[in-house]
Amino acid sequence: MKALTYHGPGRRTWGEVPDPVVRDPEDAIVRVDAVTICGTDLHILKGDVPEVAEGRVLGHEAVGTVVATGPGVRTVAEGDRVLVSCISACGRCGYCRQAAYGQCTGGGGWILGHLVDGTQAEYVRTPFADSSLHRLPEGVSDERALLLADILPTSFEVGVRNGRVGPGDTVVIVGAGPIGLAAITTARLYSPGRIIAVDPARSRLDAAERAGADELIDPSVRDAAAIRAFSSDGLGADVAIEAVGVPEAFELCTRVVRPGGRVANVGVHGRPATLHLEDLWIKNVTITTGLVDTSSTPLLLGLLAAGRLDVADLVTHRFGLEEMQEAYDVFADAADTGALKVALFRT
Fold first, then answer.
1. Which of 219, 255, 295, 341 is 20 to 30 A distant from 111 in Cα terms?
2. What are the b/e assignments for 312-327, b being 16+ CB within 10 Å?
3. Using alpha carbons only, what angle is made at residue 109 by residues 270 and 18, rounded to the nearest 5 degrees?
């Protein structure tokens, strides 16, 4: 089969690799019908994730069809249309029993495209199929379902829920890329009073407005004090969500949050950020980090099937699977291409 493989910082190849096979009783083999590229894949290609080995098939988000299962698989079967979650879960360890699947110590967690071969391929082996694949309801398209493999549960769990967004809150979201837009979409489920999107790119601010942001701010024009002034009492955000993964974005979140507020970091960081405790120690600020658990995927899938989540504008570019290299170039050059989420389909 063909797949996208990693060969050190800045080097990737689309070419022939061996077909995946069932190795463990709980494995399933999934034919990839739709797949996407994540900002985390770009971090890998920059060398920010040194655990990724030479020759690894990248990718951790897909929709596909089950073509084979091991003898221990009971909840999915050949022919089922499934969502491949970005997180694999053994279902038995202490973390999995708390639904903290991202921290699985039984061989799961974020392994696809990281520690084992991933989804940017014609076929993928999915460990722990019973707890890591989700059968798709009729009427949910491959493209819409694809957004539930990572960005929607990530923004919802690590951003909105960790930040404890509530009715009437002022929410500042720094970064209006795919994760930031998904955070706007899922924050609206909790009826915040005001959502403020912060991004230097006009195209992404326009996308944030379509997603439901109330205020649009270019950080090169307005500083932290000006952003705080958009809150109802001028004290700042109840919740600040970092959705970029660069030090400047995290540090801005800590400057716009109000006393007693919450900073929820979602972005994947490859460089150190400065934590200004000399300013924060007195402000009762809560800072959370996290890897998505995907425990919310069934809930979000139900909302998507019921038409309660509007994800129509998140995919901006579409390709055939064999156009993987071009899709990477378009996604990596989002400033010029306007790419948010790219989707690739089996043709």
1. 341
2. eebbbbebebebbeeb
3. 90
**Residue 241 to residue 76: CA distance in whole angstroms:** 36
Q: Minimal CA–CA distance to 287: which of 298, 296, 276?
A: 276
Q: Are 156 and 186 in contact (CB under 8 A)?
A: yes
Dihedrals phi, psi of 19, to nearest 5 degrees = -65, 140
pLDDT per residue over 221-238, tens digit each? 999 999 999 998 999 999
Q: Which residues contact 12 (CB under 8 A, 6 or more apart)?
A: 4, 5, 6, 45, 58, 325, 328
Which residue in 188, 132, 120, 194 sits closest to 160, CA to CA?
Answer: 188
| Contact of 239 with 261, CB cutoff 8 Å | yes
pLDDT digits (tens, 9 = 90+) for 82-100: 999 999 999 999 999 999 9
The burial class, CB within 10 Å (0-12 / 13-18 / 19+), for 5 is buried
Q: Where are the alpha helices (DSSP H) in the chain?
A: 39-45, 129-132, 142-146, 151-154, 178-187, 202-211, 224-228, 247-256, 277-280, 297-305, 324-332, 334-337
Question: DSSP readout, 54-76?
Answer: TTPBP---EEEEEEEE-TT--S-
